[in-house]
Amino acid sequence: MQGGQRLQILVGSEGDRLPLVEMGTCKLEDSDQWDCILVADIKTQKNQKQYQRQQRFLEKLRSKGFHFKMIKDQKKVFFGIRADSRIIDLYWTLMKSEDPGPRVKLNQMNSDLATTRIRIVSFVVNSKMKPGDTFEDLVKDGVFETMFPLHKRENNLKGNWAQWRNIFRPQPIDDIRNYFGEKVALYFAWLGWYTYMLTPAAVVGLIIFLSGFALFNSSQISKEICKANDTFLCPLGDHNRRYQRLSEMCAFSKLTHLFDNDGTVVFAIFMALWATVFLEIWKRKRARVVLHWALYGWDEEEEEMALELINCPDYKLKKHHHSYLGSTIILILSLFMICFMIGMAHVLVVYRVMAAALFSSFLEQQVTTVVVVTGAVVHYVIIVIMTKVNKYVALKLCNFEDLRTFSDRERKFTVKFFTLQFFAHFSSLIYIAFILGRINGHPGKSTRLAGLWKLEECHLSGCMMDLFIQMAIIMGLKQTLSNCMEYLCPLLAHKCRLMCAKVHDQEFRDPELEEWRRNYHMNPVNTFSLFDEFMEMMIQYGFTTIFVAAFPLAPLLALISNAVEIRLDAIKMVRLQRRLVPRKAKDIGTWLQILETIGVLAVITNGMVIAFTSEFIPRIVYKYYYSPCRKYQNFTDDCLQGYVNHSLSVFYTKNFKDHGRMEGQENVTECRYRAYRDENDYSFTKAFWFILAIRLAFVIIFEHFALCIKLIAAWFVPDVPQSVKNNVLEEKYQALREKLCFNSRSTDV
Q1: Which of 93, 225, 605, 692 could form a disulfide with 253 if both were Cys (CB 3.0 to 4.6 A apart)?
Q2: Which residues, including other chains, have CB under 8 Å from residue 714's CB and lie 6 or more apart?
Q3: How wide is the angle at C-alpha 633 spanned by C-alphas 627 and 638, nearest 5°?
Q4: Average pLDDT for residues 400-420, to the nearest whole number?
């Protein structure tokens, strides 16, 4: 330490400096010298038991080499904490295996010093002192209220990053790293790269969507539907007892063609390739960044052990362990929760069936659309509720496992929480894409819920319309409403905290106390603050890739949302929230494996959507097997001529049990419905089984083709640039040369 000046506890409602107790030595210049601030209620000073526990905790920290400064105001007691320089020297000594060499060592230590000090103080304060006296226990018992690192008074990030006017400017990743640590910096580096790579995906998706307008009025299928005034459709459900003319579906058939056309297959393959290229180039970008930060050989477990030894020199290594019984229990509980998530999708099914019956009393033709829209909104509400439940369950499962380190706990929690969130977000989409309308039976013999309500059908224009609407509403709500709440809630909470502070508190002449109070009145953060941002992006990435065949505008929505999300997160972290405890990292961890898993799921799901949900396969089969082009060599018209009649089965209305109550029944002897069934016994026709075989073959071919493209792209683009490998190789070579020279000199002596 410098100067040998006494550090005093400062007490006084007006900031008067009263020397009371000497607790260490350090040179005081400004509040930036304090690594972290502990806060306690003033009442703890009057409660003898709490005061003694507080002093024991502080004394224990002092014995570990920390210095303190205490300032009181009318309601709170603030403790400034700073690590002795000997602790920092010990940290660098223990971490010498990550020594980057003289070329970058000085720059690294200068940029790492502030974040390293905060990380050490936070680790020691939150570590277990003795049974019942962890900082978490003391907070629960009211001995302390909270702990947080201070935001710097002079912070360049406020001007060149955390401003809405900087929305199109590159991010200062190095400055973010020097202030918030590598983990936060890598999050923003990944988010920036993801946003940048969304640009080509958004452009291609928009082109595919707009290309449907070129066939808006020229599609042979739409033409036939619009002219089918003499063809009647069978009522879809109990709520609709009217025979609708097929021509009434004219507008919907044209709209469906915007996202259910031949370009959908091309776009799905493109997105499979895009996801692979995005991840492979990100790996290269990450390698360059961590080499620049001299963290290429850094080991997370090694640092955690170093921090444990700094906290307690007698620390005994906690080894890895595995329990088959515990793993079995975790697996069973996880499967139970997954089944519960699937059950929530069935709740949505029940809602849609009952809502259809309810809305039919005052709506007629719009019932199906209203049910789909309100069902999507209900699903969004369920997602918001289940997110809190899933987080609680994932935490309990991690506590049950008794994991070795915080890093292990974080990885396990990430996998469990994402799995539960995946089923919460996508279970209803899976139902609509692959189950809706496929277990309903046929007119005259419908499958009913509890024997009362008829199961809902897909929209008359096809299930792709339902899937498109569901995707658009859920993703639209998440990207707009969630972002608004994510910004407005912290902003309003911060304003309220400041207003309450001004009403109840008076002005203090001590500028250091004012700085501590300003940080205290910011919104609190926790270990999930950055985790929640990552999770939000993973779910968005899932929406952008997994069902993109049904919603080609998803990359465009994600691009617009992310451009706002980057500045929104920056403003929250710099201006509205307390400073996050900086953490080191050399990659985004388990999130990378989750991204790769999503990429594989996207290939499988999009192949199945094209095969089973869209009309792509039936159109192709008709065109090359049943169409006039196949039968007549000199046929010059559109080969899809007659497809609508071919894809609709016939049902004789006399077989309806309540045919007499059907509207317009006296003039209708037969109605049509979407299926391949025989008109006599309503069994599946040969065309159904043939098309089903083609669907299955397409899924296999599509998935293998797309996965092969992914593998070739992954092989073609190396994870680590050759320049990075050569730099690491050069540093190892130079280190060995220096050791050889040193050994030669020692031998000569």
Answers
A1: 225
A2: 276, 280
A3: 45
A4: 85
Q: Which residue has the tokens 């739409």?
A: 222
Amino acid (one-letter) located at 606: N
Q: How far apart are CA 71 and CA 513, in angstroms?
A: 7
What residue has token string 């996207």?
Answer: 602
**Single-letter amino acid, residue 263:** G
User: What letter represents residue 647's amino acid?
Assistant: S
**E strand or H helix at 456:** none
State the Cα angle at 531 between 529 and 535, rounded to 5°: 125
Which H or E run contains 30? none
Tokens read off for 409: 């706990």
Q: Which amino acid is it at 10?
A: L
| pLDDT at residue 201 tops 90 | yes
Q: For residue 464, which of 608, 349, 577 has the smallest C-alpha distance?
A: 608
**Which residues touch 401 (CB under 8 Å, ≥6 apart)?**
326, 330, 412
Looking at residue 452, its pLDDT comes to 65
Q: What per-residue confidence (pLDDT) applies to 12?
A: 32
pLDDT of residue 128: 75
Strand 441-442 and strand 244-245: the pairing is: unpaired
Backbone angles phi, psi at 25, to 5 degrees: -135, 135
Neighbour-count burial for 597-607, b at 16+ CB within 10 Å, e otherwise: bbbeebbebbb
Burial (CB count within 10 angstroms: exposed 0-12, middle 13-18, buried 19+), residue 679: exposed
Q: What is the enclosing helix (H) or strand (E) of 31?
A: none
DSSP 8: E
For residues 41 and 453, the model is more confident at 41
From edge to edge, which strands make up the β-sheet containing 670-674?
244-245, 232-233, 670-674, 648-652
The band of 110, judged by pLDDT with boundaries at 50, 70 and 90, is low
| % of the chain with per-residue pLDDT over 90 | 21
Look at residue 360 in the predicted model and tell me its pLDDT: 64
Per the structure block, which two tokens stand in for 714?
A: 């992954």
What confidence score (pLDDT) does residue 659 get?
Answer: 57
| Average pLDDT over all residues of the chain | 81
Calpha distance 308→695 (Å, rounded): 58
Comparing CA positions, the residue from 77, 143, 150, 142 lying closest to residue 515 is 150
Check whether 565 has a pLDDT greater than 60. Answer: yes
> What would the mean pLDDT of 53-79 be, rounded to a whole number?
89
pLDDT at 1 over 50: no
| Residue 498 and residue 152 in contact, taking contact as beta carbons nearer than 8 Å | no
Please give the Cα distance from 512 to 522 (Å, whole number): 16
Strand partners, 37: 80, 148
- Select from 500, 582, 583, 579 the least CA-distant residue to 147: 579
Residue written as tokens 């595995």?
322
Do the Cβ atoms of 542 and 425 come closer than 8 Å? yes
Distance CA 413, CA 444 (A): 50
Of 199, 167, 182, 201, the C-alpha closest to 286 is: 182
Where along the chain do its domains lie? 6-149, 173-285+324-401+408-617, 722-749
Taking only Cα atoms into account, the Rg of the chain, rounded to an integer number of angstroms, comes to 32
586, 177 in Cβ contact below 8 A?
no
User: DSSP code of 240?
Assistant: -
For position 32, what pLDDT does the model report?
54
Q: Spell out the alpha helix ranges (H) of 609-669.
A: 616-621, 628-631, 643-647
* Contact predicate 11/117, CB 8 Å: no
Q: Give the tens place of pLDDT for each residue, 411-454.
A: 889 999 999 999 888 888 888 888 877 777 778 777 776 666 66
- Where b means 16+ CB within 10 Å and e means fewer, 278-292 reads bbbebbbebbebbbe
